[in-house]
Amino acid sequence: MLDDLRELYQEVILDHSKNPRNFRHPEDANHEAHGYNPLCGDTVNVYLKMGHNGLIEDAAFEGKGCAISLASASMMTDIIKGKTESEARHIFDGFQKLVKGEENDFDAGEDTERLMMLAGVKEFPMRVKCATLAWHAMTSAMDEKPDVSTE
Amino acid sequence: MNDMTTFDVEKIRRDFPIFSQEVHGRPLAFLDSGASAQKPQVVIDTMEKAYAETYANVHRGVHYLSQVSTDLYEGAREIVRAHMNAASIEEIIFTKNATESINLVAQSYGGANLKPGDEILLSTLEHHSNIVPWQLIAERTGAVVKAVPIDEHGEFMLDTYFEMLGPKTKIVAVTHISNAIGTITPVKEIINAAHDAGAVVLIDGSQAAPHMKIDMQALDADFYVFTGHKVFGPTGIGVLYGKADLLDAMPPFLGGGDMIERVTFAKTTYAKGHSKFEAGTPPIVQAIGLGAAINYVNEIGFEKIGAHEQMLLAYATEQLSQINSLRIIGQAKHKAAIISFTLDNVHPHDIGTIVDRGGVAIRVGHHCAQPLMDHFDVAATSRASFALYNNRADVDALVSAVKSVQEIFG
């Protein structure tokens, strides 16, 4: 019983969910979006400080959610900080395929190993939305669409 | 004979073919009957037979099968009438589900009777299906929706309700049993007080119908709704009970075939009684299946079902209460066998996923009752809901699965 679950709830995931990184509202954020999962009522606010040439100078979030959604948001904000908008979108494309089980050769460069921690989600299709909620909010923030719902 | 031999849960489990399978290599502990109940073989067989041997449209043909099919469909209505102790079969309307039943009353009765400033009283316990239809009709008519509060145990606050009732109150719509936390509301007192204030009452019996005997003439409800799939019948069939004089005065809800008396392009006159509200070909086989389900539970008897479920509720409450950091949401004095709970620092979705791997099916989320979740200041809970086929082993499986949640989350 516990093998799949241990794969899903790895120590790293639990650590990120209990001590989420970048869990704050930066005053100088210039892009933000609110993500909502109507299935469970989970919410996430993603804040970005976007500089010139699409550089993400700061990324942070606040919200309520399950371990998977919090860990994913926490890792995401760590990963996209210092990347460009198009790099962040590219990583999300691959990550989304990874958690849906559509991608066997996931490659996100130096971030591959970290994001692979969430690959266990693919065995739990009902939880894909949890893993991608913050990422959808990130792209909405970049697109300047303030609200995103996973339904 | 003692109670243990008269209520043999293992025999009942064998009536439900779903329990012969395993989930994730574990025996299925199905604790989500509050969302939808499993089906006994007799319901499945009855529906198969209705399709294979007696199927035809109802109320239309003069041919043999149409007659047999009509007799079975109308026979199901009589089963429902007798079960609810309604005065007449004209008071039993078949709908798609409880949601449609409530929308029918809101649109038809509410649309014809509500005026700007009139008040519709609901409660904080309500399922979204007993909130949103009233908001829709309130928006159209200028009426106002108000919610009777509940206390910290999840009890309907009767005294506050009495104070809220007044000359503006036109409709009171309250659940019989809370789907999210199991509270049994004092429906008799609610109905009597509403009638004294001149309001009509709709009771949402979706959670009550699988667990207790419901008696329309004793309750004196004006409208009472429930859905078939929660009472071990098929999906796609719901019931609306309405007092005959109220139904007679109400305009139709949906227009179409079967609900008319005479149609011309100048003017159409409508059928009387329940037919006015059953436009189009009805859910024929689903109604027949619901009849079989109701016969099934009545053969077992609600006294025994209720006693068995209360035993499970007490056992599960006692066992779950021993788990550190587990908090039971809703501790009303009169409760049906529904337990909502939270675990400190573990989100219900994580709980749901983990216990599922132990073969335990529970519902996690807001249970379509977000105002109630707001009342308890939680976004979501985990809910175990019991039915006549659950046993102590199901409770043990739940408790052990919740312990494995704690193991994983440390």
Automatic annotation (TrEMBL), chain A:
Transmembrane segments: none annotated. Gene3D superfamilies: 3.90.1010.10. Residues 9-130 form the NIF system FeS cluster assembly NifU N-terminal domain. Pfam families: NifU_N. One of its GO terms (molecular function) is iron ion binding. One of its GO terms (biological process) is iron-sulfur cluster assembly. Belongs to the NifU family. This is SUF system NifU family Fe-S cluster assembly protein. It comes from Sneathiella litorea.
